[in-house]
Structures are given as C-alpha cells and as structure tokens.
Amino acid sequence: MPKVYLLDYVAGNVRSLVNAIEKCGYVVEWIRSPEDVPKAEKLILPGVGHFGHCLSQLSAAGFLPAIRAHIDAGKPFMGICVGLQALFSSSAEDADCPGICLIPGSLDRFDDSVKAVPHIGWNNASCPTNPTLYGLSPDSKYYYVHSYKYPYVKGELESHGWAVATGTYGTETFVGAVAKGNVLATQFHPEKSGVAGLRVIRSFLDGSGAKALAEHLPQKSNIAAELVPKDGLTRRVIACLDVRTNDQGDLVVTKGDQYDVREKGSDRNVRNLGKPVEMAKKYYEQGADEVTFLNITSFRDCPVADLPMLEILRRTSETVFVPLTIGGGIRDTVDVDGTKVSALEIATMYFKSGADKVSIGSDAVIAAEEYYNAGKTLFGNTAIEQISKAYGNQAVVVSIDPKRVYVPKQEATRHATLKTKFPGPKGEEYCWYACTIKGGRETRDLDVVELTQAVEAMGAGEILLNCIDKDGTNSGFDLELINQVKGAVRIPVIASSGAGNPGHFDEVFRETTTDAALGAGMFHRGEYTVQQVKDYLAGKNLVVRKFEGEF
Ligand code: 1PR
C-alpha cells in the first residue's frame, strides 16, 4: 500500500486520522524527528490544541526548517486544523510565538459576545472560484472545532495565488481551507467529516486535487461576486449510547428513565438495547453528527488498560468518521495493582483508541466545589485543566446530571433560580438545578450556573447538559434549564434528556440557543431514526447535514 507520513510531535488524538487515511487505501508512517522529514514524499501535519503549544513543540524539536524545506521542494503537504493555522505568521492565541510564515497574516479569535466559542460543528468550505477544490463540494458540510481563525477578506490570499474555501459562523467569514501548488490546508477536520472529508483526504493522497488545481489556477479577475455569506453552521444532532455490563457480563447499550436502567419486572435485569459498535455505525449511517458513549458504570474492578470502552472505541473509529465522545470514569484513580493513574492518562488512552473528546461528570462537580472553596482559584491540577492543556479545550466536555429543586420564592435559596412555567408539587413557582454525582445517586449543594461557570474557567470546551427529571420521559427537552445554562456560559451547550420525537428537536432549536441536541432512547427503541429527525428539521427550514452514503 502507498505510504503517507504523519508528523508526530505532540500527544494528539490522531487515531481517527490514521483510520481515515487507511480507509483511503494508504498506510501511515510516523515522522518522529526532523531528520526523517526528507524521506517523506507526502507529509501531513495534524494539529491539535493551542497554537503556541503546537508551534513551540515543533520549533523546539527542530521541525520548522524541515517542514519548510519539504514545502519549498514542491512535495505534497497537508496541514489540518492547527496544522493550517501554523502556516500563517502568527495567532492572537499566542502572540509571542511565530508561525511557519508561509502565508502572511495573523489569526484572531471568534467574537464570543454573540455566539458560542469554540465554533464546534458542521459548516461550509466553499470556494466560489474552484467549487471542487481538492474534492470539496458546495453541497457538503465539514466538521470544525476551533476558537481562532483567519478572517476572510475577499481577494487577499487569492492575490498571493491561494485558492480559498470559506465557512461563515454568525457573521464572521473565515478561511476553511487553502490550497496552492503542492500545499493543502484545512481548518476543518476531514477525518471527522464523514464521506465529504474522506474525499478531500483521498484527493490529497492520490494527487488528483493538486493536479486539478494546477489545471484550474484561480485568476484574480474571476473571483465570483458573492452574495453576503450566510451562517453555514448546521443544527447538530447527536446520538448517545449509555453503555454498561449487564448481569450476564456483556457490554450493552442500555437506557433508563430518570437514570434507572433496570427493567420494571421482578427480575430487574439491566435493559439491553443492543451492541455498542453496531449501533454507533447505524447512527453514523443515519446521519448522526456525533456519537457519544457514556460508560455509566465505572468498571472499577478491571485493570485500567483493559477498560472495555477502549475496544469499543477502536472498533467504532474504524467505520464511523464523525466525532466520538467518551465519558464515564475519567478521574484520578488507583489501578487494581495499586498504581496511581491520572485522569490525563485515562483520557490519553481514550484518545489513542479513537476518541475525539472526553466527557467528565462527577469529577467536574468535585473540582468545581474545590474551585469555589478556594475563592475561585485555579491550581492547574484538575482533570479538566490538565486534559484541556494537553489536548485543547475542544477535547473536554463536561457532562452534567442536574435535578430540579423547587422553592416557593427566590430568597429561599442562595442558588440561581428561575421562575418556572411548571410549578412544583406544592405550587412552588421557582426552581434551581442541583448538580449530582455518581450517575445521579448523590445530590450536591452546587447549582448548574456555578458548575458551568467553574468548568468554563478551567478550560472545558463544551457542556453536555442532561436533566434527570426529563431523562427517558419522551416529553421534550427542559427548555428552562437549557436557557439558564446558555445564559451563564459562552462555550457551546448540547441539550440532552427528554427527546421523544423529531418535533422536540425543532422545539429546542427554536426556543433556546442550544448549540446541539442529543437523543438516546427514541433512537435505541427504534421509534425514530436520526435521519427522520434531520428530515423534519430540514422541512422546518433548519439547516442540517445529510449522510452522503458509502465512501
Ligand atoms: O461521573 O464522570 O463517571 O460519568 C458518568 C457518566 O454516565 C455521566 O456522563 C452520566 O451522565 C452518565 N450516567 C451515569 N448513570 C447514568 C444512568 O443513566 N444511570 N446516564 C448515566 C446518563 C443520560 C444521558 C441520556 C440522556 C438522553 N444518561 O446519557 O442519554 O438523558 O436520554 P433520552 O433521550 O432517552 O431522554 P462520571
């Protein structure tokens, strides 16, 4: 099989990229020192996390001149995400750290005063002068996750000979991909962009993208006059699989109501709704924008290296080319042989097995309590801080399991209350949401506003907002809870718990500013498919991404 060389310079969650390359019929060889770069014919620079962290690692290891020499020699080069950003001169993310300076210009941050940042989700990469640039399609969507971007100014990069594809988030149009001669760079993750992304990788690897570009050099004069670009971000629909071992010892997808996953009969078996890997693939093929696995029991008795979810991730990531999140048990722990294992080490195992994000539940609540007890001081030692520092904050989701607590009036509690349309059993008109740990078994004196603001300060990139009262009820999302949390933080929020039909997704997207919505039971029980939800949303004029078929 033909080879492609991947630059291995930081701990990165590159398993999905390796899987995508293999799916295109190539094998990956690793470049681990600058001396190895000249042997690469085709070189890929994957980028994760922080611009300064990435560039300083590359620089300290002596890679920058070697990469530059590879590009200057006219050999094929592809940069992904921070790998695109690295080609520019600098970034506001770390003003002291210079880039590779192949493209003059400095990246800036998305404006978070009117929208969630990071920009997470499926957006355009459209190039009016060259619509099929490197296999791109104006009808496809691509998966982005980033806070910094190069702002698009029409004609600027084109005047230096670059073909440019753009996306628009809110009112900000940014560079989604650039190509010139032997160089292709994408701000989006092609390896996580389904079939649309695999086409881009293949056109880089087989040389067809560069060939077509050479035959169709953009002319300054033919940059099409565009209409004002529209926000291209789609409504994200996520399928969630709660996974645990059943009483027979098999790992199964389960689903309860209000977190009780056992059957109602006398034997109280764990409800078995199917096999995790097969179900994840099914949802990918129905058009799920992401798949989340929650390990709802911590498998405490097995060695950490044998965590059953690792194998599930490895197998799923071979066939599912959308982002995979894994949650459950991510905390500092002690292995069965007495060895201490940090949350970062557990997260690293998950990333190496194919996860793109990890989701932290109980440990985030404890960390938030300590944060407030220390007068809102951060010491850098929490799981959230350590994992987001190593992998970028987009890789850290905090999963919250709140419960409604009713109070007769606002003054009855120190917590952030809201006036509810659904009064409590004694007619209470106010409520607040208490955070829980251990899968809802223990309620803490911490509300969702406190928790979400604390974890945002620690570097969490996204909130997975469950609701124990709504879980498994099929009665729709808790819109009041979602609006309260959206008003408290700037990072994206995934609404979860209560989805029972496609109309509930439409409702949550219209009546809240949620960034994504998640369903579980309604998909597992076969009541609706992800595709039906998306068709329904499209019928209501909400922009969604469609599954593009087999690669
Ligand atoms: O605390 O870091 O070990 O993480 C444990 C994780 O497992 C947490 O994210 C927690 O939400 C989850 N979890 C623990 N126990 C349960 C349980 O059900 N007994 N499941 C559980 C959480 C809620 C969602 C569900 C939505 C949508 N399940 O995952 O998918 O509520 O359901 P619906 O659409 O059917 O209403 P840690």
Automatic annotation (TrEMBL):
Pathway: Amino-acid biosynthesis; L-histidine biosynthesis; L-histidine from 5-phospho-alpha-D-ribose 1-diphosphate: step 5/9
Entry EC number(s): 3.5.1.2
InterPro entries, A to Z: Aldolase_TIM, Class_I_gatase-like, GATASE, His_biosynth, HisF, IGPS_HisA/HisF, IGPS_HisHF, Imidazole-glycPsynth_HisH
MF terms in GO: dCMP deaminase activity
Transmembrane segments: none
Keyword Hydrolase: yes
Domain of life: Eukaryota
Catalytic activity: 5-[(5-phospho-1-deoxy-D-ribulos-1-ylimino)methylamino]-1-(5-phospho-beta-D-ribosyl)imidazole-4-carboxamide + L-glutamine = D-erythro-1-(imidazol-4-yl)glycerol 3-phosphate + 5-amino-1-(5-phospho-beta-D-ribosyl)imidazole-4-carboxamide + L-glutamate + H(+); L-glutamine + H2O = L-glutamate + NH4(+)
Keyword Hydrolase attributed: yes
Keywords carried by this UniProt record: Amino-acid biosynthesis, Glutamine amidotransferase, Histidine biosynthesis, Hydrolase, Lyase, Multifunctional enzyme
Pfam families linked: GATase, His_biosynth
Domain Glutamine amidotransferase: 6-194
Role noted for this protein: IGPS catalyzes the conversion of PRFAR and glutamine to IGP, AICAR and glutamate. The glutaminase domain produces the ammonia necessary for the cyclase domain to produce IGP and AICAR from PRFAR. The ammonia is channeled to the active site of the cyclase domain.
Record family assignment: In the C-terminal section; belongs to the HisA/HisF family. Belongs to the HisA/HisF family.
NCBIfam families per UniProt: hisF (TIGR00735), IMP_synth_hisH (TIGR01855)
Protein name: Imidazole glycerol phosphate synthase hisHF
Organism, scientific name: Podospora pseudopauciseta
